[in-house]
Amino acid sequence: MIKQKVIQAIEDTGIIAIARHITPEQVLPLAQALYDGGIRVIEVTCNTSGFLPCIEMLSAEFGDKMYVGAGTVLNPIMAQLVINAGANFVLAPDFNPEVVKIVHEHQRLMIPAVVTPSEMLQACRMGIDLLKLFPANALGVNYLKEIRGPLDNLDLIAVGGITLANTADFAKAGAFAVGVGSELINKQMIADGNWQGLTELADNFVTTFRQGKCR
């Protein structure tokens, strides 16, 4: 089942790469560079111009080598469009039961954003497997630690303000994974065609998260 394969890939690497405001021309060399650095899960955000062609291209090129998702999915129509384009999973900046319903009808992985314990438990009651703690850095590592006191059965992905400097801290605090945007999808490296630099950066993030988990 594709949902379980995506969850396993997220757990194995600890990193979801968040591609925002990239072009269809950039997306394949970018994804290859990330793949070479150990990334196996990438999302294209829906506020990216040409996000549907990007998802289609990634799905066709990588198949089950790299799982492709859509982020910033705000409504059920958008959810249907990205699933039609080939998205293996869907992320949202909020918790919208209507979006969850559409994604679950297609047996895809849904990762909604939550902040409060009430939101987290409501999402779990709807059959959500992974939760997105957003904005994670603004809430802080200690917030994740406190939440995981009574709710240590929840799998939380820290997203928002994730850097190499705080990745290990979130991993140590119990994050299931982290979602990394501009700190990994380096716009200057992309503009320069520095794909090797992006590969090394991706490898650093994967290694740093794993080291944090072991601490």
TrEMBL record:
<comment type="subunit">
    <text>Homotrimer.</text>
</comment>
<dbReference type="InterPro" id="IPR013785">
    <property type="entry name" value="Aldolase_TIM"/>
</dbReference>
<dbReference type="InterPro" id="IPR000887">
    <property type="entry name" value="Aldlse_KDPG_KHG"/>
</dbReference>
<comment type="similarity">
    <text>Belongs to the KHG/KDPG aldolase family.</text>
</comment>
<dbReference type="InterPro" id="IPR031338">
    <property type="entry name" value="KDPG/KHG_AS_2"/>
</dbReference>
<dbReference type="GO" id="GO:0008674">
    <property type="term" value="F:2-dehydro-3-deoxy-6-phosphogalactonate aldolase activity"/>
</dbReference>
<dbReference type="Pfam" id="PF01081">
    <property type="entry name" value="Aldolase"/>
</dbReference>
<keyword id="KW-0119">Carbohydrate metabolism</keyword>
<protein>
    <submittedName>
        <fullName>Keto-hydroxyglutarate-aldolase/keto-deoxy-phosphogluconate aldolase</fullName>
        <ecNumber>4.1.2.14</ecNumber>
        <ecNumber>4.1.2.21</ecNumber>
    </submittedName>
</protein>
<dbReference type="GO" id="GO:0008675">
    <property type="term" value="F:2-dehydro-3-deoxy-phosphogluconate aldolase activity"/>
</dbReference>
<keyword id="KW-0456">Lyase</keyword>
<comment type="pathway">
    <text>Carbohydrate acid metabolism.</text>
</comment>
